[in-house]
Design brief:
Blueprint: E1 3-5, E2 11-14, E3 19-22, E4 39-43, E5 51-55, E6 61-66, H1 75-82
Length: 83
Amino acid sequence: MKIRAHAESHVVELDDGSQWQIFPGDLATTLSWKPETDLRLECSIDRVSSHVLVNTTDQSRVRVIAAGESWPDGEVKKALRDG
């Protein structure tokens, strides 16, 4: 999938119309994304996120949840603290 819009630093819209919130600790990974960046969406077993977006070029991964959903209470702080 390609990026349709990435106007807000924490939300990305893919060319299939889906919108995803990027985990705060993973925002730096998205700085190199361009509209032509090819991404793959995968289910996640992480307690913080429901899915991951994988950059197919360099295999970097960012944790995401559907736009409009809320991050699990306490999990974001714990994940950011633990690295």
